[in-house]
Specification:
heterodimer; A: 588 residues; alpha/beta; Pyruvate-ferredoxin Oxidoreductase, domain 3; Rossmann fold; 3 domains; eight-stranded mixed β-sheet; seven-stranded mixed β-sheet; B: 287 residues; globular; binds thiamine diphosphate; binds iron/sulfur cluster; binds magnesium ion
Chain lengths: 588, 287
Amino acid sequence: MKQLLDIWIAGAAGDGVQSTADILCRVAARCGLHAFVYNSYQSAIRGGFVYAQVRLSIGKAWLPGSHWDILLALNADAVARHRAWAKQDAVVLFNSDRAHLPGHLKGLGMPISELVPDSLMQNVVFLGSLMRLFDFPPDPLERLIRETFSHKSDKIRSGNIAAAKSGFEGAQGIAGRFALPKPDKSHMIMTGNQAFALGAAQGGVRFYAAYPMTPATGILHWMSEHAGKLGICVMQPEDEISVINMAIGASFAGARAMVATSGGGFALMTEAIGLAAMTETPLVAVNVQRAGPSTGVPTKTEQGDLWQVLGAGQGDFPKAVIAPVSVEDAFYMTQHALNLADRHQIPVILISDLLLSEHTETLASLDPEKVTIDRGLWADPNVKEFRRYFDTPSGVSPRAKPGMPEPFVFTASSDEHDEKGLLISDVATNPIIRQRMMRKRMGKMEAVAREMPPDEVIGEPRAELTLVGWGSIYGVMNALVERGRREGCSINALAIRSVWPMNQENVRRFLSEAKKTVLIENSYSGQMGRLIRQETGFDLTNQCLKFDGEPFYEESAWPVIERYYKGEIQGRQEILTPYGIVEDLDAH
Amino acid sequence: MPIEEMIKDIHFKSETRPDWCPSCGDFGVLSALIKALVQLQIPPHEAVTVSGIGCSSNLPGFIHTYGFHSLHGRSLPVATGIKLANPKLTVVATGGDGDGYGIGIGHLIHALRRGVKLTYIVMNNQIYGLTTGQVSPTSDLGHVTKTTPEGSDVFPVNPIRLAIAGGASFVARGFSGDPKGLVDLIAQAIKHPGFALVDVFSPCVTFNKVNTFDFFRSRVYRLEETGHLTGDFAQAMARAGEWGDKIPVGLFWKTDVIAPRRPLAPAQDPAQGLDASLWQNLIKEFQ
Ligand SMILES: Cc1ncc(C[n+]2csc(CCOP(=O)(O)OP(=O)(O)O)c2C)c(N)n1
Ligand code: SF4
Ligand SMILES: [Mg+2]
């Protein structure tokens, strides 16, 4: 029986690659397997070559795989492009009306036109065949088809169920070839973006604004779809400058507010990040990184915006940057960020990336009660005097909002102001007040540092080799630590969640006790390496970097890590995914 | 209402005295806004003035209402956010021609389309005042400024035409030297159920020696004295194009056709997360 299977689904945009992957993942999750789905696509809406890498496994699936056991080839191009990545004994499911297999590949050709009235149903036929290959009963898939097509006509529903059956029967010849266990439990499936959105909803967000930008758009889609039911005001304004300033207005008026974008949109938001800090208006901004610079590679993953978010906004001001490490973490960290923003009246940035935001993974459950809403300090309605920016030891002053009667009426200003909010910038510049207000705001960072989420050690506390990474790198680090265990190599890892302010002392201590370290990052510069050096003095000289737009794969990362482990290499190493280097497509 | 509970000018008096140059046009706009709020009996704590950056944008600091003095060009997004979060508030955005028709013009066009109920008062002095006298988007062709020593060589923005064409439902022009007319226009704008633009000639006495109080006094005439029909698009556009010896002020354009808005989200403080049944319902889509 297989413990892990890689199934790739490939075809043209519009062939239903994503929805087929979603159904497969959902069925597997309901049968107790773990799943990881990574979609590769381009910005072209129709016609371009797209594929989904689905990994199913008994244990947690941390990553997509770099080679496939089963290829669902929705067109002939799919075979040509992916044949080089077949594992031993791999099988191609293909439409025998349209494609032929190159000699060295094994496959199961389905005569789609004989099986179903409409070739669009080929995906469902293949899903039925997969069940047979896995040695799964047909009913979980049938049930899901019934749910998926519940709002469609009886005819469509029964047609699809029949299509799945014909696929199931047609695969009899290789039944059980990739038999998978069926643990007696079930998982949820979710993308990172859905987790950010759900975390925002559970965290009491009442105002959400965004301008569409891949790969952050999934949050906007989910929010728009659920806005009415949740009582959230969802806006798609004219640009990201408007997005963030609207959210600041809503937050000033008392609503919990959140925005999300990718690096380009975040660049437009930077001036207002400082506005939130200066006016002490809480705000959560999500930056879902994609491969930059400029428009870059919009549909590919990278971690090159770390320095951008750290430097976002002119001047010195308090802010926090949190990097969730997994889908589950995105749900909790969003709520944590909302609380942190309210408690300290600062902007909080959640930094994600395309891999984390757009992949689907299985989760056991989410606890809606784990994080409780904390709106921070509000003015006592009975006080006789009010100064909005009253200088307290923590730097946090009780808030008021428009509509509250005297004595609370005040003006928030992006110009420097005194405790009452009155301007000191124009005529009556006042060095004493200026210094005091800077100290008040910056003073918040002390408590913010105490409330940052802990970083995570993966594996044993001590090891021969320690991997260091942040955000979505958590996945590959887990896979590598597990691989090390299987191969008898003592490897652990540190996943940084608290980017700014960093858990300085803990990171410094942990790293200085490590025997050998390697930074892993989806970037050219190893940006976290520089931040860690700046904050702890520790120099991560070994850096394993990948900046080709693709995530790390265990298969290509392991040999490099193993050589670091054995002391055969040191310093900088770059990893390349050789996809896209396709031999002559017309050869077959 | 007992007289002692009435809202009076004094209630809007701020702790800070305006730091505008003596005789700056913006004084007239500030006092007209206060008089309009008094006329409408809107208490200071239910009004919010929102601005960008510029001399004119300092206004929220000089009036005792809630205020948000934001970034250069960004008053409309901030004001929109405030209004959406708490529709009960009277939200008035104020600023200059550079703020609203230069760096912020993109927001203006979309605010017109959205039609969220806001009053937008632009103190149009056809110059960048705060930054000491550079050409502005409304400076006339040929206007000599520090950055156009040979005279401006681009056409000015015509905010009235732009707003009418852009889908505004209320477009007016006032003159700081005509306080009565201005109070009336601002009061009407605040009462208007959609987005209302009030462009105001508000001379910069320090950096614009062309478009002065005298310049406007000798040229402006009142639209309402000419039988102008505010619901007639062609007439409104024609009047908006007048510039020269005769310049119209007053209400150019008004319509009841306002972009439909879904109910606004309540901005109550969420004390807890989603209720359990809603949570269960949401979670189903992931199972
Ligand atoms: C992003 C940004 N760019 C430039 C400035 C500098 N700046 C401040 S006010 C202003 C122009 C103000 O002109 P206007 O809006 O007409 O106001 P006025 O002073 O004439 O009332 C400029 C360019 C700024 N504060 N922020
Ligand atoms: S510089 Fe011009 S606009 Fe600014 S306060 Fe002085 S007169 Fe008014
Ligand atoms: Mg101006």
